[in-house]
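Need residues for this backbone.
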């Protein structure tokens, strides 16, 4: 049965690899990233290679209200998300006080707040429906703190802890949460 998969951070890296797998399998793929040019190229490749008419939304999820806007746009377009892959995120390799505070704030907004919002909005729909899967991408950094990437380590620890909690809360509704 064909599923609809929403993948954030889908224009490169792990997000793009997830997208390739689902497109190849014939699932409906919704890509989200900041770069419209990359998303257009990926969509064309998926049409040519997999005959998959992937759709996309250009969105910077580190911006305030962007995750809610994304949910509203997808809902308004009549799309139902079966799988949510929260992959968007970034790190910074500098001492805490050597980076500007705006970089730290943007990292927390993307790695934590946007992920939490997407879990809330899409998770609520999935739980009400009685099915769905959420994959929150963390890192080995979730298991320990470390210098030069203190905020990144902390955000990934949040993702792991939050995902473990949601896994327990959502399972009674038929929704799995994995990290």
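Answer:
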């Amino acid at each position: 049965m064909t599923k609809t998969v929403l993948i954030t951070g889908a224009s490169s890296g792990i997000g793009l690899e997830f997208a390739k797998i689902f497109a190849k399998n014939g699932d409906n793929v919704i890509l989200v990233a900041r770069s419209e040019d990359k998303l257009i190229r990926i969509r064309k490749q998926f049409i040519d290679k997999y005959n998959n008419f992937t759709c996309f939304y250009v969105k910077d999820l580190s911006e305030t209200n962007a995750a809610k806007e994304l949910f509203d746009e997808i809902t308004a377009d009549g799309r139902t998300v079966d799988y949510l892959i929260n992959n968007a995120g970034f790190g910074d390799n500098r001492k805490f006080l050597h980076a500007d505070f705006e970089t730290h704030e943007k990292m927390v907004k993307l790695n934590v707040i946007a992920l939490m919002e997407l879990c809330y909005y899409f998770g609520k729909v999935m739980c009400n429906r009685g099915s769905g899967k959420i994959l929150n991408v963390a890192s080995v950094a979730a298991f320990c703190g470390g210098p030069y990437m203190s905020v990144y380590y902390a955000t990934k620890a949040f993702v792991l802890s939050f995902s473990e909690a949601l896994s327990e809360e959502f399972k009674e509704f038929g929704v799995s949460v994995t990290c």
